[in-house]
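pasting for ref. prot 1 ->
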Amino acid sequence: MQQSLSALEKKAIKLALCENWAEAIATNKELLDLDPTNLQAKIRLGRAYLLSKDFRNASKMFKAVLEQDPINQIAKKNYELAKSKSAKVAINSGAVIKEPGTSEEVKAEVISKSKIWERLAKGQTFSMRILKTKTLLIHSSKEIAQIGGPMALKIYLHTKEGAKVSAQYIGQSNETKNCVDILLKADRPIFKQEKQDVRPYMKKGSIEEHEIEVDSFDDE
């Protein structure tokens, strides 16, 4: 059963990324038959219904998610979209999370004084140089921003295991000076929030400085 669940999970994620909604609906329903409490399968199924314009079932599925997890922001957002029958708005605005765990909005510190940011359009994709303690964003062969902290380490570890991660420009940050908003996308759910990933009191220097210089690679 465990092997079947694992295989179905991978198939469901692939179908969602390929936007094959008919098969995605069937696969996630099959997953839920085997594991009725699978929250991610419910979210995927709700989204597949929503983008198939089956608003009734989409609303029903996201409501079920909220009954199981009342503070789930993905379900809340999509439940409102389903109730308002706004699949078109969802697609155009990106309000529907493409696949739980495969995308994450982060802030990147600007390290280039160039006016290049004024010329960048939303959705611009960057090349990336991935190190243990930071991920450098590259445009026109210049390093222009960096992502640090636990997210940088997460990107490093998962890409070493074969994950493909891309970075897209969202816009100037309205909250943090000298930062820009970046959308990270992965070909697998590497951004799932887990309790052990939350470390608000991580000590400075817990990741050795010399690690920046070893085992680094370019993803260009």
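and prot 2 ->
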Amino acid sequence: MDRAAILRSLKSGVHVWSSTILLRCLDKDLPLESGGMQYTSRVTFQPHSYYGGPPSNKTDEIWKRLSPPGDGIVELPIAAAKNLPESLPAPNNPETALVYGVSVFHQLHCLNFLRFAYYPSSVKDMDEEEVAFHRDHCLDYIRQVLMCHADPTFEPMSEVGINGMGATHQCRDFDKIFSWAYEHRSNKVRGSGYTGGRLTHTPADLNHFDEGPHTGHGH
């Protein structure tokens, strides 16, 4: 998937995500199997440099693999969505299901857009007003997400300050949510376009690039 195609996907993806009623912070609003929504994983944050640096084919692929095919757009039975905000009917089953976005993949999508926007040459094919609009949307959205979850973990301080690494956090099981979103994906709804024609599932347990113990959010 070339850079221009990714930028087109980013533009269409922000529109889809902005137009889709997203799931709220409350755990009860997401009918995931019980294990996925509980804070059952203890993860010690470690640096993962391969997510940073200027956009490249290798880095873009690593970011792409953080979202499942379907980009986190899922179909929920109308009965299961009775306590959720109204959303669009599912293209596959408009009489019995609605489509929703699983918030974590919207959040990753926005962070990925900010990654591109940080390097002006990577968004040169986008109109400046579009870049500013999407950038400001993503900044405000991620701000609300962080305040919603309000992680109270204590992080150690060094002589040069706090870098967030080395602290152990209580986390939800990202791999379970990834797999659940894949299994319940809406095949006919286009999200960010990051699937790039990839039709098979990248198993969640293969979605991290580190070797050895699974420490930090490498995924």
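Confidence is low (pLDDT under 50) at residues 15-29, 191-216.
The beta strands are 41-44, 73-77, 88-89, 97-101, 168-171.
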